[in-house]
Design a protein that fits this description.
Two copies of one chain form a homodimer. Chain A is of the alpha/beta class and about 375 residues long. Chain A contains 13 helices and twelve strands. Chain A has three domains: about 5-50, no CATH class; about 60-160 and about 295-330, Response regulator (Rossmann fold, 3-Layer(aba) Sandwich), CATH 3.40.50.2300; about 160-295, Rossmann fold. Chain A is about 45% helix and about 15% strand. In chain A, strands 2-1-3-4-5-11 form a six-stranded parallel beta sheet, sandwiched between helices. Chain A binds a DNA duplex (16 and 16 nucleotides) through helix 2 and helix 4.
Amino acid sequence: MQANIGDVAQRAKVSSATVSRAFKHPELVAEATREHIIQAADELDFAVSRSAAVFQTGQTFRIALLLNDPSSTWFNAHVYEGLDSVLHPAGYDIAIYPIGTSDDRHVFFENLPIRRNADAVVIASFDVDSKEIERLHSMNVPIIGISALPEEVFDYSIATDDDYAMRLVTRHLLTLGHRDIGYISLDPPENADGSLHYSANRRSNGFLAECAEAHIEPAMLHVPNTSQRVEHALTQLFALDHMPTATCCEQDRLAVPLLSRLQRLGYAIPDALSVTGFDDSTYASEVGLTTVRQDPRDMGARAARHTLGLIARIDDDSEDGAERNNDRGETNDETAGETNNKNNKTDKTPPIHESTQIRMMFRLSTGPAPNAV
Amino acid sequence: MQANIGDVAQRAKVSSATVSRAFKHPELVAEATREHIIQAADELDFAVSRSAAVFQTGQTFRIALLLNDPSSTWFNAHVYEGLDSVLHPAGYDIAIYPIGTSDDRHVFFENLPIRRNADAVVIASFDVDSKEIERLHSMNVPIIGISALPEEVFDYSIATDDDYAMRLVTRHLLTLGHRDIGYISLDPPENADGSLHYSANRRSNGFLAECAEAHIEPAMLHVPNTSQRVEHALTQLFALDHMPTATCCEQDRLAVPLLSRLQRLGYAIPDALSVTGFDDSTYASEVGLTTVRQDPRDMGARAARHTLGLIARIDDDSEDGAERNNDRGETNDETAGETNNKNNKTDKTPPIHESTQIRMMFRLSTGPAPNAV
DNA sequence: TTGTATGCGTTATCAC
DNA sequence: GTGATAACGCATACAA
């Protein structure tokens, strides 16, 4: 029912190869014949079948995205958007594999459902252990990490230096004279895998290190990351011997609503209490939250560009291998040159590990500490 | 390099057909041979190539998702998540086509890049005109609408009744004694297509209708949907002859930060001023915003289930056509019965148009109107 | 610049 | 329950 490339060829009185070229490499087809072909295609309502084309190339044109948190999360949704902004125009689909629970995770790495069915794997926002990485590498496709550790195992990685960034936040509070600081982290609820620390540990480490250097003993609060997170945070804050003069939140996700609620409860912010976040996510600027800026969309886009590069490099390699059996007269010199070039290099170009530039957003939620007791 | 189905067949000493069956229809293969095959496959690190399998079936196993706003939007990110939660397990990829500008949009409908390359098209959160719909239908795949109008053109659609929901919000304010209400809508910025009204018009219509019935003349404010939206809204509010006693926002996206800022600016909410939103999106509950609940994730999931149904139905139809040429002894009766069944029906089952159940979330941002002038 | 021939990996059909 | 084989639609190497 649907016209195929042969039908078009017939109608345009050319071979199917020419039709194929007319679409894939228009510059190799004479202007006139190309127009003929396009017209015939239009009349038959023809379009190249991506499934067939993709199959033909041996590539899958599919990128697997491993996600621990829901894809609708501020971070993940923006990472996805950034990835897609580069990958979609390049003809790639993104398939999300949610591995939020340890079960999911186990099953995934056991079965490796993407084996032979993805040209690259992108891991966003969670850590992987050595066994998992080994499994992943057994697929022989590039592994890309976005805010994922340990970076050495990735062919490309990009991340915010959470530790350092949180140190800066802490210093900011210390400089303002705060000596009584509450740090609030969000703990994954029940069924999540205990080994998924993403950036959380690095952030609290940074905070603790900076406090230690300043000889300060902060209050460390742990709040379950549920819809009741603000209530839990408030409860724990009020349960302290005395309210801190500053609360340092692991994420904007908590800081934004907490800020709002504290104000509502009569706390003068920042006069009585300073609040900091991390991410510069939705509403952070609008509610005036001092925080660290992350641009997950940009991280996704950069990761995607490197992903394409890594995929292309792999293809080149395999082509080299194939080409050794059949010289092609005219372009022989060039080919030989290229091959030599590649042989002179090591097998792979070394992996790149980027760190995003850290930018603090100083806003109205932080101010000098009120006079201490 | 990568093992294919033939390699496995060889190693397991069976035919490739049996290997294929062992994966696709395990029940048709003897227990023993199947185990053999699985083992051989494991040893060779074999996995069925989705590209090849998909190609073979003729389906694309790809769903096109047309998006007007960025995919990271609260609404879109959740719709996507809902769709993917159903489609991914069913073996479908989702490809997002952003058509945010009129250019994008024009190019898309002109070229129809998804022709022959999607098994269904899902349109989220924007309206389509008759020409566009005609183009879409020329692809002969189901068209699904999520919060998109006009619903008649879709094979399945699901939407919130924005008009009615906003009427309820308005009534709530009227009941509280508010007579001086400001309605704030977010207008798409510069380069967006002027014809994209999504739900906005329906909401303001509902508001206006209810006000008219109550013989009230509201202040209608239009704010550009940029990062400065709150500043613009505040400016316009303060520029009014007198502050309204209630502001009715078209979206939480504005209402949440506006609420926060108004409090910060010293407005007692709801004593001096009531604020309402629409969506029940991120932080709405945490800041205590009275709003209308929407569940885009659920809408996406429902839409996805119907999408699969629609695709399956199309497949059945074409199979029927094919099967007329070759009877198959044993199952002949059944087949005949089914075919008759289908012939008794009309070509298609009638489209379904669902309306989500509306639920208002009454919270602390609304209260009785302060004594009027 | 174009045509011919072939292969990509899987699945469905049919015979056994 | 299993094997042989023909598609599926396209892209490429090579010949012309």
